[in-house]
Amino acid sequence: MEFVIKIGQFLLSLSLLIVLHELGHFIPAKLFKTRVEKFYLFFDIKYSLFKKKIGDTVYGIGWLPLGGYVKISGMIDESMDKEQMAQPPQPWEFRSKPSWQRLIIMLGGVTVNFILAYVIYVFLSFAYGDKDTNVNSLKDGYWIESPTLNDIGFKTGDKILAINENPIIKDSDIGKNIISAKTITIERDNAEKTIALPEDFLGQLSTRQKRGLFEFRIPFMIGEVADSSVNKSVDLKKGDILVSFNGEELKYYDQLESRKKDLKNASIEVEILRGENTLKRTLKTNERAELGIRPAYDESRFAELGYFDLITTEYTFGESFGAGFSKFTGQISSYGEQLKAIFTPSTGAYKGVGGFKAIYDIFPGTWSWQAFWILTAFLSIMLGVLNLLPIPALDGGHVMFLLYEIISGRKPSEKFLERAQMVGFFILIALVLFANGNDIFRAIFK
């Protein structure tokens, strides 16, 4: 069921983004009386799942979910329709339109991507507000499970004070600053310490099996008892919190592993908190010292128990426009920092580039409209920014040549554009293979 939910969210988000992006090209093309021959969701190499011609346009769904496209008459694109381009230009063709109209048509896709992301952030702000965690309320710091962070010198219990000397007030500030982080200032044992990050910090994070960063120190809340668990018959309920293990107080989930690692095939006396009541239970471990219990996460419940303080902000409909714009510009800036790091080989960030598997993995295993729209807004920005890269075959490549034409007054020859398109196509294929190859590598060696 988890796979069905994740793949459902993935395909719905991807389809929405592709259709709206291509509509961004389609609508101005139609407004400028440019013929659109095809409008496709997914690629229809040799075969279409569905197609129907309405007017001059064939609308369809392809079988290869790697994107989508609109085929505009008289445009040198991925179709490489040389036969059409060899004919005299027709008034309804892209190449016959003024350069400013062609520029608007080419910028239409990314414009829609950015508008969509902004609109989503506005309605998310209005519907859900903002919820964050005050880092000063984390009495015993963060849980550091990442081997990369451990190797650099971080330890569980460290409190994060600043990144690059920028004070960290909310937990989300860490994510906003970590891409460009050079130093992190922490508090450990009531003393401040600054830890310098290696230049290839992002690369090291990407290639380790455990790639988490700074995790909250939370209690062990029971989520689900596996059917194969030795504790399947024990009276445990979702939401119970383990507060005592083998006679010792268990405050944090991260304390459990070290306490049970030597307890194989053992019976352990525990105490659980159920609502306001503390109950005693006897749990067992298997031959690998495992309980067979999956943990749960309940932010509000943990806040009630005093593990951290939540910062909650609600917006009126009018205020949500400003809040949405702040999130939109912040996400574009953050993604720009990521691209800068990726294209700087010394950071090693390119090792973390992922393909479709990586995108699929970011969707949660349970359906959440809030999470779905947050991720869709981020992917819309990602799609828009990537399409603006000045690579022939991408929108940004077409825009680059159109700007040259507008500024210089000289139009690049069709032969040059055809060759540039081929070069851009091979660059894109190489990038797709690299990104999805990273996914395969991580799946094999994780």
TrEMBL record:
Domain Peptidase M50 span(s) in chain numbering: 10-431
Cofactor dependency: Zn(2+)
GO CC annotations on file: membrane
Catalytic activity, EC: 3.4.24.-
TM spans (from-to): 103-124, 372-394, 422-441
Metal-binding in keyword set: yes
Domain of life of the source: Bacteria
Name of the molecule in the record: Zinc metalloprotease
